[in-house]
Write a structure and sequence with these properties.
Length: about 575
């Protein structure tokens, strides 16, 4: 048994599928004599295609973003074109009859040993470039679906160092029943993906890839943050019973999809969805959501081979709006940086403190034409839909000046569209509250906002000065910390007093314990992973707003996070005993 961080509740049993960091898994290492020529040809073909892809990417980024940002792709081409690199790989294939993947694995291993001795930051970054190139080449030769179909028994539990968007794309339509990662925490990509699909997940399980191999049967307990393997038949049977109970209960809850979201005293609340794709929007509709409270547009960039142009964005946003419940969507502009980076926006160099650095709205301001293209695409996509249904949200707004600059850029985009005769809609403009300074100045910032969305994932880590994806400090990143509750209560009070619509779209919106407290604060709009909508809708039926306010009042008297967690666990047990299986520890 290994203990990690519970990030998505439930129990799941399945076959482990271990993903190495860069998709180099040389299961077959040697070739027959007559296969060497074909393998050499495959390597040259894959290398040439990768170079062509990089050239196209360099040209597009140079034109749309800038020379410096495009330089990384020129460097990657030079690595692939380097005679020494080709000579080493082809030499191992021809001379030692190694497969391409085995040769790439050996190449990466040699350089990892070499660069691990270097203390110079520049040299360490060069190894990151080499690893990126090997990853690109390896991924182009890897058919993940085919590998899995080769004999792995479904359903699968994905085990990885960390699950990145690019890896999710490579997994395609594979049936995944659970996720385990060595790194990350409650708000990592793996956690968000798991919750959006309603599957159990555990993060922060250090060294798990050294103990579990592909094909092992493992258990993921996302309530307690436990991963178990090598179980005896009796223990396996007990977990299978818990797994059935978990999925049966979820299926029962999903039957409330057509019911309104009402509290026990008849107060209507809005249960919205956080989404990354059209499939997520469709899931939000299937789960009975009333709209999309957060569309993360960065996933379009993260999974795109280059910069998506205005027309590509327009088509994407339009399809998202059409697929969403009631055609109601809040579209967040590019939120890149921190743990989400793309090389074509200049993130080939590591910042010493990326979460507090060049990211989100700050990055967008530095690339005004790129930012303008996204604003225009959103305005155009909203045309023809009911006024106010589509909203534009700007991340990490910290000051009044930033909000004024945002409005100025929106006005500029609208003038351009008018002059070009392109139809568009005048959409509500909102800010995402993630920075404590903005929370302090909430009353002043409201002057430039049509609505506010609380990004509790980042707000919590900034308040607590603790990296949300670092398992060593994850105990500090608790949304039910007394400090966090005080800040949220004040922000919600200020917005309600000013009649400014406010939504919480962090992961805590879908957590039963947090939902009750937020309801007690007067919050009416909750945005969460689609899979959690039925759970929160059912829980809302069991509590009145007055009772939630009383529970909040009691919780606010408590001095420690552990006291709040214990108190709220007891309240959930009292209100809805069956919900404990859906509540992470």
């Amino acid at each position: 048994m290994r203990k990690g961080i519970p990030v998505s509740p439930g129990i799941s049993i399945g076959t482990a599928y271990c993903i190495n960091e860069v998709f180099v898994r040389p299961e077959q290492t040697h070739l027959e004599e007559d296969a060497v020529g074909e393998e050499l040809a495959r390597f040259e073909s894959a290398k040439d295609q990768s170079i062509r892809d990089l050239k196209a990417l360099e040209a597009k980024v140079y034109a749309q973003v800038g020379k410096n940002e495009a330089a990384i792709f020129a460097m990657h081409q030079s690595i692939l074109s380097d005679h020494a690199f080709t000579k080493k790989i082809t030499g191992w294939i021809a001379g030692e009859k190694m497969t391409i993947q085995a040769a790439l694995h050996r190449f990466l291993g040699e350089y990892e040993v070499l660069f691990s001795k270097a203390k110079d930051e520049y040299l360490q970054e060069r190894f990151a470039d080499i690893r990126d190139v090997v990853s690109r080449l390896s991924a182009s030769l890897t058919d993940v679906k085919k590998e899995i179909d080769r004999g792995l028994k479904s359903p699968l539990i994905v085990v990885a160092d960390e699950l990145l968007p690019s890896q999710v794309v490579l997994l395609g339509d594979v049936e995944v029943k659970g996720i385990v990662t060595q790194a990350g925490g409650p708000t990592s990509h793996a956690a968000i993906i798991a919750r959006s699909k309603g599957i159990p997940a555990v993060s922060g399980v250090r060294g798990i890839l050294r103990q579990i191999k592909t094909g092992d049967e493992i258990v993921v307990d996302g309530r307690e943050g436990i991963v178990r393997y090598n179980l005896d038949p009796e223990a396996t049977a007990a977990y299978r019973k818990l797994e059935r109970e978990f999925f049966d209960f979820k299926d029962q809850l999903a039957e409330n999809r057509d019911e309104p979201a009402l509290t026990a005293d008849g107060r209507q609340i809005a249960l919205l969805a956080n989404i990354n794709s059209v499939a997520d929007a469709q899931s939000a509709k299937a789960m009975g959501g009333s709209g999309v409270g957060l569309y993360r547009t960065e996933y379009l960039y993260l999974t795109h081979p280059s910069v998506p142009d205005e027309e590509e964005q327009y088509e994407n946003y339009r399809s998202i709006i059409e697929a969403s419940p009631n055609n109601s969507v809040t579209i967040r502009t590019l939120d890149i940086g921190g743990d989400k980076t793309v090389p074509y926006l200049g993130h080939n160099h590591q910042e010493s403190n990326p979460f507090m650095g060049w990211r989100s709205i700050r990055l967008s301001f530095e690339h005004p034409e790129l930012f303008n293209s996204q604003i225009r695409a959103i305005l155009r996509a909203a045309a023809g839909f009911e006024v106010g249904k589509v909203r534009m949200l700007f991340p990490m707004v910290t000051t009044v000046d930033e909000m004024r600059r945002v409005r100025s850029m929106v006005r500029r985009a609208m003038k351009q569209l008018v002059s070009q005769g392109k139809p568009f809609a005048n959409v509500p403009i909102g800010m995402m509250l993630e920075v404590p300074a903005a929370a302090v100045m909430m009353d002043t910032l409201l002057e430039g906002c049509d609505f506010v969305s609380i990004g509790s994932n980042d707000l919590v880590q900034y308040l607590m000065a603790a990296d949300r994806d670092n398992p060593k400090v994850s105990h500090l990143c608790q949304p039910l910390s007394p400090a966090v509750l005080r800040v949220l209560k004040n922000v919600i009070r200020v917005c309600n007093q000013n009649n400014t619509p406010i939504t919480l779209c962090g992961e805590m919106a879908g957590q039963p314990r947090a939902f009750v407290l937020l309801l007690g604060m007067g919050l009416k709009n909750f945005s969460m992973s689609p899979a959690f909508i039925p759970t929160i809708k059912e829980l809302a039926k069991k509590i009145s707003t007055a009772e939630a306010a009383q529970i909040l009042q009691n919780a606010m008297k408590l001095k420690t996070t552990s006291q709040v967690l214990r108190y709220m666990a007891g309240q959930i047990q009292r209100l809805a005993p069956k919900f404990t299986i859906l509540d992470t520890a």
